[in-house]
Amino acid sequence: MVYVADLDGLNKNKPQLDVVREISEEMPTMYEGGVRKANNVIDMLITGAEKAVVGTATLLHFEDLRLAFKLSENITFKADFRDGIVSFDPHIAGRAFRDLTGEVVDIGIKDIAVPRQLASEAAAAKAELGFSLGVFSSVDERDAMERLGADYVIARDYGSLMGNE
Fold first, then answer.
1. Quick check: 163 pLDDT over 60?
2. What is the C-alpha to C-alpha distance for residues 112 and 55, in angstroms, rounded to an integer?
3. Phi/psi class of residue 79: alpha, beta or left (left: φ > 0; alpha: ψ in -120 to 50)?
């Protein structure tokens, strides 16, 4: 599966749905396009992506995560982290990972992705709450992340290594 982080969607709220549709036609896709509100999940999924990734850095309100799950169960929750969990919503920002994850799992979301810095804490929460765990890490750390309890590793962008073909 390929992970697509759409920088236009994330930074400018202008997701490149047509580009991701082409990618999704060729391979299974997890698509992070800057979900801000619940209905944006549908935009991500109409591309053919298997999973819409909802990150804390772009989500405006936690309640939108609940509403998004009512629209589709094909959601991966992503904890964005910079000296704490990042969010516009004070209900999310700076919270303890385990507490936030408990609420996410209570909604019904069973797939959670975290940066390498949260891997150990997320693995402990996974053991307690029973969700699927993805970790943003290097390929070199894949075995270590799997031993820790990660179900999958999201490696860095290899597209930039291929040049402009």
1. no
2. 10
3. beta
- pLDDT number for residue 135: 96
pTM above 0.85, yes or no: yes
Determine the distance from the C-alpha atom of residue 8 to the mean position of all C-alpha atoms in its chain, rounded to a whole number. 16
Q: Which has the closest alpha carbon to 55: 75, 35, 39?
A: 35
The separation between CA 58 and the C-alpha centre of its own chain, rounded to angstroms, equals: 11
Encode pLDDT of 84-105 as tens digits: 888 888 888 988 999 999 999 9
Task: Give the Cα separation of 30 and 105 in Å (integer).
Answer: 19
User: Residue 37 has what DSSP assignment?
Assistant: S
Nearest alpha-carbon partner for 77 in 118, 138, 47: 118
Cα→Cα distances 131→5, 96, 108, 164, 165, Å: 22, 17, 10, 38, 38
Q: pLDDT tens digit string along 100-135?
A: 999 999 999 999 999 999 999 999 999 999 999 999
Please give the domain boundaries of the chain with CATH numbers for all domains. 2-161 (3.20.20.70)
| Helix residue ranges, H only, 27-165 | 40-45, 62-71, 97-107, 119-129, 142-148
